[in-house]
Give the backbone structure.
Amino acid sequence: MWPPPQGLYLDEWFNVYYPPGTKHGDGMRDMETFLNPHWKQFEPQNPVINLLVGIAFIILLNLSIIGNGCILYVFTRTKKLQNASNIFTINLAAADLFMMVTHGLPVGINVFQERYWMYGPFACKLFSCLGGVAGTTSIFSMVLIGYDRCNVIVGGIAAKRLSKKKASLLCIALWVYSTLASLPPFFGWGNFGPEGFLITCSYDYILPDWNSRSFVLSVLITHFGVPFILIVGFYTRIVRAVVHHERELKAQAAKMGVESLKSGGKSDESAEVKIAKVAITNVVLWFFTWLPYTVVVLLGLLRKYHLLTPVVAGLPSLLIKVNSAFNPLVYAGGHPAYREALAETFPFLGIGKKATEKAACAQTEVTPA
């Protein structure tokens, strides 16, 4: 319990002391039989670590509520943003918000009540399942955004764009798939369990039996490997198309004896490219926040158990949540239409003020006397 039980305490320099033979996970009561024996071989972790992790979860939860909440509110109430492409963005924000509400809140409460997971085995399974649903939906929302950007930019005017109805159906299908893909451990394929600091739960990637390892391997391939390959493919095509287009413009400008064919205004194509850059930034953020956790899972599959300490396994789990909290910040920073709508909806934020002033000045300059 928190504060630490008798026999486990901190001195004024936050050094932890405990009786000989005390192990990480001792005192989890009804979780003892549910806890993977791997975690019991370690000495107790400093309780301050769990406290700091819990505070980080709370901070990320608030950032996610503000950022993703703004996206959901602005996109759903602004008509000019209600198109098929932005439906995927709304879906991404919903998945990220769902991730932090279902994970940040219980963990934030937990660290101020108990040293370990306090909600019992079933809640641990549910926590893991909901994390799988949110994570899978978020990842494949990135794939859909990449596909849509590729279709629009590479295909150009001739591209057949998705309708809002089809985009909505794709998002619904994605949530259904993510739910079904996260349920197998409830029915005997794979397992859930506490991980790392023992205040969060996930798929158990440490159990050596083939049943558990095959499930984790399938998740690793279908929910990280395949999306990564698809996204790299989409954005590689986008970059090639943009480079080719720029070369054509320069060649045409050279033939006409001018420096550039680009006008001072923003064309629809340049807007699409800017949105694609934002999406690429989001994907890079996603990749580098999920990569450490993927490496940890691979260590478990390769049975490199000696490398999987509570800290090594626990920190990547926290890093995943960073992606859910910072996605909207990255998106807001580069999506011109969203910034404009956000400035109109929440003018006190000061976002887009300078851009609005410049637009007004430009309009004044071209107005006939």
Residues 265-269, 354-369 have pLDDT under 50 and may be disordered.
